[in-house]
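Good morning C.,

I know you're traveling, so I'll keep this short. The sequence:
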Amino acid sequence: MTKLDKLQNYLPSIYNEIAEIQEILKAESTKLEELDIDALAVINSVFIDNAEDVGLKRYEKIFNIVVPIGSTIPERRSILKSTLRGIDKLSATVVKNISLAYQNGEVDVSFVPSNIIVKFTSVLGIPTNLIKLQEYLNGRKPSHLGILYLFSYLLIQDIDQVMTLDELETMTLDKFAF
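The tokens, ready to paste straight into the viewer:
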């Protein structure tokens, strides 16, 4: 049922025959539909996964985040989510949650003397948005700890066990170890 139908149902049926009333109801129904769209946009801006530019700018201002020029909406959302996930004391779980905020950010985290080891498990090669993750983790970690990033690559000896020839033809070279 449209907004116009709802408005018409509120009035006695005698008003259905008056052209001026119908024009007023059409104008009001158009404005009410626009208000519904605007209200939905406001609701969506509250949630980082749905927020567009205006909502993201508000969150970036709240958390004092300076976003690099040219960052896409998904990149900005990743930065915000990692900021929210990283509020706690730095631990393996926190590093894992921060990494999950980034695309292809599934990791195993371990601590060894003087280093945090972050091993990417969700992709072959170097994941997208790695630089932003590195910048964020470097800002969060204690200064006496280093961070080692480990990546998975295909080895030539493993290809015949893992891939068919058709799959191999579509694979880019950045997925292979040299």
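Safe travels,
E.
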